[in-house]
Amino acid sequence: MIRALWTAASGMMAQQLNIDTISNNLANVNTTGFKKNRAEFEDLIYQTTAEAGTPVATGLTLPTGIQIGLGVRPSATQKLFMQGNIYQTENPLDIAIEGDGFFQVTLPDGTVAYTRDGSFKLDANGNIVTSDGYFIEPPITIPQNATSISISPEGVVSVKIPGQVAAQNVGQIQLARFVNPAGLKAIGDNLFKETDASGAPIVANPGTNGMGNLRQGFLEASNVQVVEEMVKLITAQRAYESNSKSIQTADDMLRIANGLKR
Amino acid sequence: MIKGLYIATSGMLVNSAEIDVRSNNIANVDTVGYKKENIDVRSFPEVLIERYNDKREFPPFSKDREIIGSMVLATVVNGTYLDKSEGPIHHTGNSFDLALQGHGFFVVQDAEGNEYYTRAGNFTLDRDGQLVTHQGYVVLGSGGPISVPSGAKFTVDSAGDVFIDGTQVDRLRVVDFKTPTYLKRIGDNLYKATKDSGEPVDAQGYVIKQGYLEGSNVNIVYEMVNMIKAYRQFEAGQRVVLTNDETLREAITNIPRTG
Questions:
Q1: pTM, 2 dp
Q2: Which of residues 224-253 of B touch A (CB under 8 A)?
Protein backbone atom coordinates (compact mmCIF):
# COMPACT_ATOMS: atom_id res chain seq x y z
CA MET A 1 0.00 0.00 0.00
CA ILE A 2 2.86 2.32 0.77
CA ARG A 3 4.13 1.03 -2.57
CA ALA A 4 0.91 2.18 -4.23
CA LEU A 5 1.43 5.69 -2.87
CA TRP A 6 4.88 6.02 -4.46
CA THR A 7 3.80 4.26 -7.63
CA ALA A 8 0.95 6.69 -8.13
CA ALA A 9 3.23 9.61 -7.27
CA SER A 10 5.60 8.52 -10.05
CA GLY A 11 2.60 8.43 -12.38
CA MET A 12 1.60 11.96 -11.43
CA MET A 13 5.14 13.26 -11.93
CA ALA A 14 5.32 11.58 -15.35
CA GLN A 15 2.06 13.19 -16.42
CA GLN A 16 3.30 16.54 -15.16
CA LEU A 17 6.30 16.23 -17.46
CA ASN A 18 3.97 15.21 -20.25
CA ILE A 19 1.88 18.34 -19.74
CA ASP A 20 5.03 20.51 -19.56
CA THR A 21 6.14 19.11 -22.91
CA ILE A 22 2.75 19.56 -24.54
CA SER A 23 2.49 23.14 -23.25
CA ASN A 24 5.89 23.95 -24.71
CA ASN A 25 4.77 22.52 -28.06
CA LEU A 26 1.59 24.58 -27.98
CA ALA A 27 3.49 27.72 -26.97
CA ASN A 28 5.70 27.25 -30.04
CA VAL A 29 2.93 26.54 -32.50
CA ASN A 30 3.92 29.68 -34.47
CA THR A 31 7.68 29.47 -34.02
CA THR A 32 9.49 29.22 -37.36
CA GLY A 33 11.31 25.92 -37.77
CA PHE A 34 10.24 24.61 -34.35
CA LYS A 35 10.28 20.83 -33.96
CA LYS A 36 7.83 19.31 -31.52
CA ASN A 37 8.85 17.25 -28.51
CA ARG A 38 7.27 14.07 -27.27
CA ALA A 39 7.56 12.82 -23.70
CA GLU A 40 8.14 9.07 -23.54
CA PHE A 41 7.72 6.77 -20.59
CA GLU A 42 8.96 3.43 -19.37
CA ASP A 43 7.82 1.22 -16.56
CA LEU A 44 10.06 1.23 -13.50
CA ILE A 45 11.68 -1.82 -11.98
CA TYR A 46 9.58 -4.67 -10.67
CA GLN A 47 9.65 -6.13 -7.22
CA THR A 48 9.61 -9.88 -7.72
CA THR A 49 8.28 -11.61 -4.64
CA ALA A 50 7.92 -15.02 -6.28
CA GLU A 51 9.68 -16.12 -9.44
CA ALA A 52 7.56 -17.72 -12.14
CA GLY A 53 8.50 -21.34 -12.53
CA THR A 54 9.50 -21.83 -8.89
CA PRO A 55 8.84 -25.45 -7.93
CA VAL A 56 5.99 -25.69 -5.42
CA ALA A 57 5.73 -29.45 -5.23
CA THR A 58 7.25 -32.39 -7.03
CA GLY A 59 6.72 -31.82 -10.73
CA LEU A 60 4.71 -28.66 -10.18
CA THR A 61 5.91 -25.13 -10.76
CA LEU A 62 4.28 -21.78 -10.17
CA PRO A 63 2.72 -20.80 -13.50
CA THR A 64 3.11 -17.11 -12.80
CA GLY A 65 5.40 -15.27 -10.46
CA ILE A 66 4.41 -12.33 -8.33
CA GLN A 67 5.82 -9.16 -9.79
CA ILE A 68 4.68 -5.83 -8.49
CA GLY A 69 5.63 -2.84 -10.57
CA LEU A 70 6.86 0.28 -8.87
CA GLY A 71 5.58 2.88 -11.29
CA VAL A 72 6.74 4.80 -14.30
CA ARG A 73 9.59 7.08 -15.27
CA PRO A 74 10.12 9.46 -18.17
CA SER A 75 12.70 7.93 -20.54
CA ALA A 76 13.11 10.74 -23.03
CA THR A 77 11.65 13.87 -24.45
CA GLN A 78 12.21 13.11 -28.05
CA LYS A 79 12.38 15.82 -30.71
CA LEU A 80 10.46 14.82 -33.79
CA PHE A 81 12.05 16.22 -36.93
CA MET A 82 9.14 15.84 -39.28
CA GLN A 83 8.96 18.56 -41.92
CA GLY A 84 6.77 21.49 -40.94
CA ASN A 85 4.46 23.23 -43.39
CA ILE A 86 6.23 25.51 -45.83
CA TYR A 87 4.57 28.84 -46.46
CA GLN A 88 5.34 31.72 -48.75
CA THR A 89 6.56 35.05 -47.37
CA GLU A 90 8.14 36.61 -50.49
CA ASN A 91 10.89 38.06 -48.31
CA PRO A 92 14.15 37.36 -50.24
CA LEU A 93 16.03 36.42 -47.05
CA ASP A 94 13.46 33.90 -45.84
CA ILE A 95 14.76 30.45 -46.71
CA ALA A 96 13.07 27.13 -46.05
CA ILE A 97 14.86 23.78 -46.20
CA GLU A 98 12.84 21.22 -48.11
CA GLY A 99 14.19 17.96 -46.73
CA ASP A 100 17.05 17.18 -44.38
CA GLY A 101 19.63 19.56 -43.00
CA PHE A 102 20.22 22.53 -40.72
CA PHE A 103 21.58 25.99 -41.33
CA GLN A 104 24.83 26.61 -39.48
CA VAL A 105 25.24 29.77 -37.42
CA THR A 106 28.23 31.01 -35.43
CA LEU A 107 27.50 31.88 -31.83
CA PRO A 108 29.32 34.80 -30.15
CA ASP A 109 31.64 32.29 -28.39
CA GLY A 110 32.81 30.99 -31.77
CA THR A 111 31.02 27.61 -31.62
CA VAL A 112 28.60 26.53 -34.30
CA ALA A 113 24.90 25.98 -33.66
CA TYR A 114 22.30 24.55 -36.02
CA THR A 115 18.83 25.78 -36.89
CA ARG A 116 15.91 25.07 -39.19
CA ASP A 117 14.73 28.67 -38.83
CA GLY A 118 15.58 30.37 -42.12
CA SER A 119 14.25 33.85 -41.39
CA PHE A 120 17.55 35.63 -42.00
CA LYS A 121 18.24 39.36 -41.90
CA LEU A 122 21.03 41.70 -42.93
CA ASP A 123 23.06 43.58 -40.36
CA ALA A 124 24.46 47.11 -40.84
CA ASN A 125 27.47 45.74 -42.74
CA GLY A 126 25.42 43.60 -45.08
CA ASN A 127 26.18 40.29 -43.37
CA ILE A 128 23.48 37.62 -43.42
CA VAL A 129 22.49 37.02 -39.76
CA THR A 130 19.73 35.27 -37.83
CA SER A 131 17.02 37.21 -36.01
CA ASP A 132 19.32 37.19 -32.97
CA GLY A 133 22.22 38.64 -34.97
CA TYR A 134 24.32 35.48 -35.24
CA PHE A 135 26.35 35.10 -38.44
CA ILE A 136 25.49 32.38 -40.86
CA GLU A 137 28.37 29.90 -41.36
CA PRO A 138 30.19 30.22 -43.81
CA PRO A 139 29.68 34.02 -43.57
CA ILE A 140 28.08 35.75 -46.54
CA THR A 141 28.15 39.49 -47.08
CA ILE A 142 25.81 41.27 -49.44
CA PRO A 143 27.41 44.33 -51.15
CA GLN A 144 25.89 47.64 -50.05
CA ASN A 145 24.85 48.58 -53.57
CA ALA A 146 23.11 45.30 -54.44
CA THR A 147 19.57 45.71 -55.69
CA SER A 148 18.30 42.17 -55.43
CA ILE A 149 19.36 38.92 -53.78
CA SER A 150 18.63 35.52 -55.18
CA ILE A 151 19.34 32.18 -53.57
CA SER A 152 19.28 29.06 -55.71
CA PRO A 153 17.87 25.71 -54.45
CA GLU A 154 21.53 24.57 -54.26
CA GLY A 155 22.40 27.44 -51.92
CA VAL A 156 24.28 29.77 -54.28
CA VAL A 157 23.71 33.38 -53.19
CA SER A 158 23.95 35.90 -56.00
CA VAL A 159 23.15 39.59 -56.20
CA LYS A 160 22.37 42.12 -58.89
CA ILE A 161 24.68 45.13 -58.91
CA PRO A 162 23.50 48.19 -60.86
CA GLY A 163 25.44 48.55 -64.05
CA GLN A 164 26.39 44.89 -64.27
CA VAL A 165 24.62 42.54 -66.64
CA ALA A 166 25.48 39.23 -64.99
CA ALA A 167 24.46 38.38 -61.44
CA GLN A 168 27.41 38.37 -59.05
CA ASN A 169 28.02 35.27 -56.94
CA VAL A 170 28.64 36.34 -53.31
CA GLY A 171 28.60 33.07 -51.41
CA GLN A 172 27.36 29.55 -50.88
CA ILE A 173 25.01 28.49 -48.07
CA GLN A 174 25.98 25.13 -46.63
CA LEU A 175 23.82 22.80 -44.63
CA ALA A 176 24.72 20.34 -41.88
CA ARG A 177 23.11 17.00 -41.28
CA PHE A 178 23.33 14.53 -38.38
CA VAL A 179 23.09 10.78 -38.17
CA ASN A 180 20.77 11.11 -35.20
CA PRO A 181 19.15 14.55 -35.21
CA ALA A 182 16.96 13.50 -32.25
CA GLY A 183 20.16 13.52 -30.18
CA LEU A 184 20.76 17.24 -30.75
CA LYS A 185 20.45 19.51 -27.77
CA ALA A 186 17.97 22.37 -28.08
CA ILE A 187 19.47 25.52 -26.57
CA GLY A 188 16.55 27.86 -27.23
CA ASP A 189 16.38 30.67 -29.80
CA ASN A 190 15.49 27.94 -32.36
CA LEU A 191 19.07 26.67 -32.11
CA PHE A 192 20.52 23.20 -31.60
CA LYS A 193 23.99 22.10 -30.51
CA GLU A 194 25.86 18.96 -31.47
CA THR A 195 26.10 16.29 -28.74
CA ASP A 196 27.78 12.94 -28.35
CA ALA A 197 24.47 11.28 -29.21
CA SER A 198 23.82 13.23 -32.40
CA GLY A 199 27.15 12.36 -33.99
CA ALA A 200 29.40 14.80 -35.82
CA PRO A 201 27.83 17.12 -38.40
CA ILE A 202 28.10 16.22 -42.07
CA VAL A 203 28.42 19.45 -44.03
CA ALA A 204 27.50 19.72 -47.70
CA ASN A 205 25.83 22.01 -50.20
CA PRO A 206 22.04 21.88 -50.38
CA GLY A 207 20.71 19.28 -52.77
CA THR A 208 23.83 17.13 -52.52
CA ASN A 209 24.74 14.28 -50.21
CA GLY A 210 21.19 13.81 -48.92
CA MET A 211 20.62 17.47 -48.01
CA GLY A 212 17.32 19.15 -48.78
CA ASN A 213 16.94 21.97 -51.26
CA LEU A 214 16.49 25.60 -50.32
CA ARG A 215 13.37 27.59 -51.15
CA GLN A 216 13.87 31.32 -51.21
CA GLY A 217 10.91 33.40 -50.08
CA PHE A 218 9.45 30.61 -47.99
CA LEU A 219 9.61 29.69 -44.31
CA GLU A 220 9.12 26.40 -42.55
CA ALA A 221 6.38 26.61 -39.94
CA SER A 222 6.46 24.68 -36.68
CA ASN A 223 5.49 21.00 -37.05
CA VAL A 224 3.18 21.15 -34.02
CA GLN A 225 -0.35 19.92 -34.75
CA VAL A 226 -2.70 21.72 -32.40
CA VAL A 227 -5.45 19.08 -32.49
CA GLU A 228 -2.99 16.31 -31.68
CA GLU A 229 -1.51 18.30 -28.78
CA MET A 230 -4.98 19.07 -27.44
CA VAL A 231 -5.93 15.41 -27.41
CA LYS A 232 -2.66 14.57 -25.69
CA LEU A 233 -3.34 17.32 -23.16
CA ILE A 234 -6.74 15.83 -22.35
CA THR A 235 -5.39 12.30 -21.91
CA ALA A 236 -2.46 13.55 -19.82
CA GLN A 237 -4.79 15.48 -17.52
CA ARG A 238 -7.10 12.49 -17.09
CA ALA A 239 -4.18 10.17 -16.43
CA TYR A 240 -2.96 12.63 -13.79
CA GLU A 241 -6.40 12.50 -12.23
CA SER A 242 -6.49 8.69 -12.24
CA ASN A 243 -3.14 8.56 -10.48
CA SER A 244 -4.40 10.97 -7.84
CA LYS A 245 -7.28 8.52 -7.25
CA SER A 246 -4.74 5.76 -6.60
CA ILE A 247 -3.09 7.94 -3.98
CA GLN A 248 -6.44 8.73 -2.42
CA THR A 249 -7.36 5.04 -2.29
CA ALA A 250 -4.01 4.06 -0.78
CA ASP A 251 -4.41 6.83 1.78
CA ASP A 252 -7.94 5.70 2.68
CA MET A 253 -6.73 2.13 3.06
CA LEU A 254 -3.99 3.25 5.40
CA ARG A 255 -6.66 5.05 7.44
CA ILE A 256 -8.71 1.84 7.56
CA ALA A 257 -5.65 -0.15 8.60
CA ASN A 258 -5.04 2.36 11.35
CA GLY A 259 -8.65 1.90 12.40
CA LEU A 260 -7.97 -1.79 13.11
CA LYS A 261 -6.61 -0.96 16.52
CA ARG A 262 -8.97 1.00 18.67
CA MET B 1 -11.84 -16.80 16.84
CA ILE B 2 -8.13 -16.17 16.47
CA LYS B 3 -8.43 -18.11 13.22
CA GLY B 4 -10.94 -15.50 12.04
CA LEU B 5 -8.46 -12.71 12.72
CA TYR B 6 -5.81 -14.30 10.55
CA ILE B 7 -8.20 -15.17 7.74
CA ALA B 8 -9.48 -11.61 7.55
CA THR B 9 -5.93 -10.24 7.65
CA SER B 10 -4.82 -12.47 4.77
CA GLY B 11 -7.68 -11.06 2.73
CA MET B 12 -6.64 -7.52 3.56
CA LEU B 13 -3.06 -8.24 2.47
CA VAL B 14 -4.32 -9.57 -0.85
CA ASN B 15 -6.42 -6.43 -1.33
CA SER B 16 -3.48 -4.16 -0.68
CA ALA B 17 -1.34 -6.13 -3.15
CA GLU B 18 -4.11 -5.62 -5.68
CA ILE B 19 -4.04 -1.86 -5.05
CA ASP B 20 -0.27 -1.90 -5.67
CA VAL B 21 -0.77 -3.66 -8.99
CA ARG B 22 -3.65 -1.38 -10.05
CA SER B 23 -1.71 1.79 -9.21
CA ASN B 24 1.20 0.57 -11.30
CA ASN B 25 -1.15 -0.02 -14.21
CA ILE B 26 -2.62 3.46 -13.84
CA ALA B 27 0.87 5.00 -13.56
CA ASN B 28 1.72 3.33 -16.88
CA VAL B 29 -1.41 4.41 -18.73
CA ASP B 30 0.78 6.41 -21.18
CA THR B 31 3.74 4.03 -21.41
CA VAL B 32 4.36 2.85 -24.97
CA GLY B 33 3.75 -0.88 -25.41
CA TYR B 34 2.94 -1.42 -21.72
CA LYS B 35 0.98 -4.56 -20.94
CA LYS B 36 -1.22 -4.39 -17.88
CA GLU B 37 -0.58 -6.68 -14.98
CA ASN B 38 -3.36 -8.69 -13.42
CA ILE B 39 -3.40 -10.35 -10.05
CA ASP B 40 -4.41 -13.90 -9.38
CA VAL B 41 -5.56 -14.94 -5.92
CA ARG B 42 -5.78 -18.44 -4.55
CA SER B 43 -6.99 -19.87 -1.30
CA PHE B 44 -4.83 -21.92 1.00
CA PRO B 45 -5.62 -25.60 0.63
CA GLU B 46 -8.85 -26.42 2.36
CA VAL B 47 -8.68 -28.22 5.66
CA LEU B 48 -11.29 -30.63 6.93
CA ILE B 49 -13.01 -29.73 10.12
CA GLU B 50 -14.34 -32.38 12.36
CA ARG B 51 -16.59 -32.44 15.36
CA TYR B 52 -14.79 -31.76 18.56
CA ASN B 53 -15.65 -33.35 21.91
CA ASP B 54 -17.41 -36.16 20.23
CA LYS B 55 -16.67 -39.85 20.52
CA ARG B 56 -13.27 -39.06 21.83
CA GLU B 57 -11.20 -42.09 22.62
CA PHE B 58 -7.66 -41.76 23.93
CA PRO B 59 -5.28 -43.37 23.06
CA PRO B 60 -4.98 -43.77 20.17
CA PHE B 61 -6.88 -41.06 18.32
CA SER B 62 -9.99 -42.50 16.93
CA LYS B 63 -10.31 -42.48 13.18
CA ASP B 64 -14.04 -42.22 13.24
CA ARG B 65 -14.43 -38.65 14.38
CA GLU B 66 -17.18 -37.14 12.34
CA ILE B 67 -16.14 -34.78 9.60
CA ILE B 68 -18.57 -31.89 9.34
CA GLY B 69 -17.14 -29.93 6.42
CA SER B 70 -14.15 -28.04 5.25
CA MET B 71 -12.88 -24.52 5.54
CA VAL B 72 -10.25 -22.30 4.03
CA LEU B 73 -7.79 -20.68 6.37
CA ALA B 74 -6.43 -17.88 4.23
CA THR B 75 -6.12 -16.41 0.78
CA VAL B 76 -2.80 -15.52 -0.79
CA VAL B 77 -1.62 -13.87 -3.98
CA ASN B 78 -0.92 -16.68 -6.38
CA GLY B 79 0.78 -14.61 -9.00
CA THR B 80 0.66 -11.63 -11.27
CA TYR B 81 0.42 -12.15 -14.98
CA LEU B 82 0.55 -9.91 -17.97
CA ASP B 83 -2.46 -9.28 -20.09
CA LYS B 84 -1.27 -9.76 -23.65
CA SER B 85 -4.17 -7.94 -25.27
CA GLU B 86 -3.16 -5.33 -27.78
CA GLY B 87 -3.01 -1.66 -26.86
CA PRO B 88 -4.53 1.03 -29.06
CA ILE B 89 -2.39 1.87 -32.08
CA HIS B 90 -2.03 5.54 -32.86
CA HIS B 91 -0.38 7.46 -35.64
CA THR B 92 2.79 9.45 -34.96
CA GLY B 93 4.26 9.92 -38.43
CA ASN B 94 7.80 9.36 -37.13
CA SER B 95 9.51 6.75 -39.31
CA PHE B 96 11.38 5.19 -36.37
CA ASP B 97 8.12 4.45 -34.52
CA LEU B 98 7.06 0.87 -35.15
CA ALA B 99 3.88 -0.72 -33.86
CA LEU B 100 3.54 -4.48 -33.64
CA GLN B 101 0.08 -5.86 -34.28
CA GLY B 102 -0.57 -9.42 -33.25
CA HIS B 103 1.61 -11.64 -31.05
CA GLY B 104 5.32 -11.08 -30.81
CA PHE B 105 8.10 -8.97 -29.39
CA PHE B 106 10.94 -6.93 -30.87
CA VAL B 107 14.39 -8.18 -29.89
CA VAL B 108 16.91 -5.75 -28.40
CA GLN B 109 20.40 -6.32 -27.05
CA ASP B 110 22.41 -4.55 -24.37
CA ALA B 111 26.16 -3.83 -24.48
CA GLU B 112 26.97 -7.19 -22.85
CA GLY B 113 25.07 -9.10 -25.53
CA ASN B 114 22.04 -10.01 -23.40
CA GLU B 115 18.81 -10.17 -25.34
CA TYR B 116 15.61 -8.57 -24.13
CA TYR B 117 12.18 -8.40 -25.65
CA THR B 118 9.89 -5.42 -25.96
CA ARG B 119 6.59 -4.30 -27.44
CA ALA B 120 7.62 -0.64 -27.29
CA GLY B 121 8.58 0.34 -30.82
CA ASN B 122 9.59 3.94 -30.14
CA PHE B 123 13.08 3.50 -31.51
CA THR B 124 15.64 6.12 -32.43
CA LEU B 125 19.13 6.26 -33.89
CA ASP B 126 22.37 6.50 -31.96
CA ARG B 127 25.43 8.50 -33.03
CA ASP B 128 26.59 5.65 -35.29
CA GLY B 129 23.22 5.46 -37.02
CA GLN B 130 22.19 2.20 -35.38
CA LEU B 131 18.54 1.63 -34.60
CA VAL B 132 18.31 1.67 -30.78
CA THR B 133 15.82 1.94 -27.92
CA HIS B 134 15.87 4.93 -25.60
CA GLN B 135 18.23 3.08 -23.23
CA GLY B 136 20.64 2.67 -26.15
CA TYR B 137 19.98 -1.05 -26.57
CA VAL B 138 20.39 -2.02 -30.23
CA VAL B 139 17.37 -3.37 -32.08
CA LEU B 140 18.20 -6.66 -33.75
CA GLY B 141 17.38 -7.76 -37.25
CA SER B 142 18.06 -11.26 -38.46
CA GLY B 143 21.53 -10.03 -39.47
CA GLY B 144 22.30 -8.26 -36.21
CA PRO B 145 22.05 -4.51 -35.49
CA ILE B 146 20.44 -2.34 -38.14
CA SER B 147 22.37 0.70 -39.36
CA VAL B 148 20.73 3.59 -41.10
CA PRO B 149 23.12 5.83 -43.06
CA SER B 150 22.58 9.52 -42.44
CA GLY B 151 19.79 11.00 -44.53
CA ALA B 152 18.79 7.65 -46.02
CA LYS B 153 15.13 6.79 -46.23
CA PHE B 154 14.30 4.13 -43.67
CA THR B 155 11.21 2.06 -44.40
CA VAL B 156 9.83 -1.05 -42.80
CA ASP B 157 7.09 -3.08 -44.45
CA SER B 158 4.37 -5.01 -42.67
CA ALA B 159 6.47 -8.20 -42.51
CA GLY B 160 9.35 -6.36 -40.84
CA ASP B 161 11.63 -6.16 -43.87
CA VAL B 162 13.87 -3.13 -43.53
CA PHE B 163 14.59 -1.03 -46.58
CA ILE B 164 17.23 1.67 -46.83
CA ASP B 165 16.52 3.94 -49.81
CA GLY B 166 14.35 1.21 -51.30
CA THR B 167 16.90 -1.63 -51.00
CA GLN B 168 16.16 -4.41 -48.56
CA VAL B 169 18.99 -4.67 -46.04
CA ASP B 170 17.60 -6.78 -43.21
CA ARG B 171 14.51 -8.08 -41.53
CA LEU B 172 13.50 -7.13 -38.00
CA ARG B 173 13.50 -10.06 -35.61
CA VAL B 174 10.05 -10.57 -34.14
CA VAL B 175 9.82 -13.45 -31.69
CA ASP B 176 7.16 -15.13 -29.64
CA PHE B 177 7.26 -17.55 -26.73
CA LYS B 178 5.52 -20.76 -25.88
CA THR B 179 4.17 -19.23 -22.68
CA PRO B 180 4.72 -15.47 -22.64
CA THR B 181 3.14 -15.30 -19.16
CA TYR B 182 6.42 -16.71 -17.83
CA LEU B 183 8.37 -13.73 -19.19
CA LYS B 184 9.94 -11.63 -16.50
CA ARG B 185 9.40 -7.91 -16.51
CA ILE B 186 12.58 -6.02 -15.81
CA GLY B 187 11.26 -2.47 -16.25
CA ASP B 188 12.20 -0.03 -19.03
CA ASN B 189 9.46 -1.68 -21.17
CA LEU B 190 11.64 -4.79 -21.43
CA TYR B 191 11.00 -8.48 -20.80
CA LYS B 192 13.50 -11.22 -20.20
CA ALA B 193 13.10 -14.85 -21.21
CA THR B 194 13.05 -17.36 -18.36
CA LYS B 195 13.55 -21.10 -18.32
CA ASP B 196 9.81 -21.58 -18.33
CA SER B 197 8.83 -19.05 -20.97
CA GLY B 198 10.75 -21.15 -23.48
CA GLU B 199 13.29 -20.05 -26.01
CA PRO B 200 12.20 -17.29 -28.39
CA VAL B 201 10.84 -18.60 -31.68
CA ASP B 202 10.03 -16.63 -34.81
CA ALA B 203 6.59 -15.09 -34.42
CA GLN B 204 3.85 -15.75 -36.93
CA GLY B 205 1.00 -13.63 -38.18
CA TYR B 206 2.15 -10.25 -36.93
CA VAL B 207 1.94 -6.97 -38.82
CA ILE B 208 4.38 -4.13 -38.35
CA LYS B 209 3.12 -0.61 -38.94
CA GLN B 210 5.68 2.09 -39.47
CA GLY B 211 4.87 5.56 -38.15
CA TYR B 212 2.56 4.15 -35.51
CA LEU B 213 3.00 3.30 -31.84
CA GLU B 214 1.18 0.81 -29.68
CA GLY B 215 -0.17 2.54 -26.58
CA SER B 216 -0.57 0.99 -23.16
CA ASN B 217 -3.40 -1.55 -22.94
CA VAL B 218 -4.44 -0.25 -19.52
CA ASN B 219 -8.14 0.52 -19.37
CA ILE B 220 -8.79 3.18 -16.74
CA VAL B 221 -12.41 2.14 -16.18
CA TYR B 222 -11.41 -1.46 -15.48
CA GLU B 223 -8.59 -0.36 -13.17
CA MET B 224 -10.84 2.05 -11.26
CA VAL B 225 -13.58 -0.54 -10.80
CA ASN B 226 -11.07 -3.08 -9.53
CA MET B 227 -9.55 -0.48 -7.27
CA ILE B 228 -12.98 0.26 -5.78
CA LYS B 229 -13.56 -3.48 -5.36
CA ALA B 230 -10.23 -4.06 -3.61
CA TYR B 231 -10.74 -0.98 -1.48
CA ARG B 232 -14.20 -2.02 -0.29
CA GLN B 233 -13.07 -5.59 0.34
CA PHE B 234 -10.26 -4.17 2.40
CA GLU B 235 -12.80 -2.13 4.35
CA ALA B 236 -14.97 -5.20 4.87
CA GLY B 237 -11.89 -7.11 6.04
CA GLN B 238 -11.30 -4.43 8.61
CA ARG B 239 -14.87 -4.87 9.91
CA VAL B 240 -14.29 -8.60 10.27
CA VAL B 241 -11.11 -7.96 12.24
CA LEU B 242 -12.93 -5.44 14.43
CA THR B 243 -15.78 -7.86 15.06
CA ASN B 244 -13.31 -10.57 16.00
CA ASP B 245 -11.58 -8.11 18.26
CA GLU B 246 -14.89 -7.17 19.85
CA THR B 247 -15.80 -10.80 20.46
CA LEU B 248 -12.38 -11.49 21.96
CA ARG B 249 -12.71 -8.50 24.26
CA GLU B 250 -16.13 -9.70 25.28
CA ALA B 251 -14.73 -13.14 26.00
CA ILE B 252 -11.82 -11.81 27.99
CA THR B 253 -13.56 -9.16 30.06
CA ASN B 254 -17.17 -10.28 30.47
CA ILE B 255 -17.23 -14.07 30.55
CA PRO B 256 -15.05 -14.42 33.67
CA ARG B 257 -17.28 -11.87 35.42
CA THR B 258 -20.49 -13.78 34.68
CA GLY B 259 -18.85 -17.11 35.44
A1: 0.80
A2: 224, 227, 231, 234-235, 238, 241-242, 245
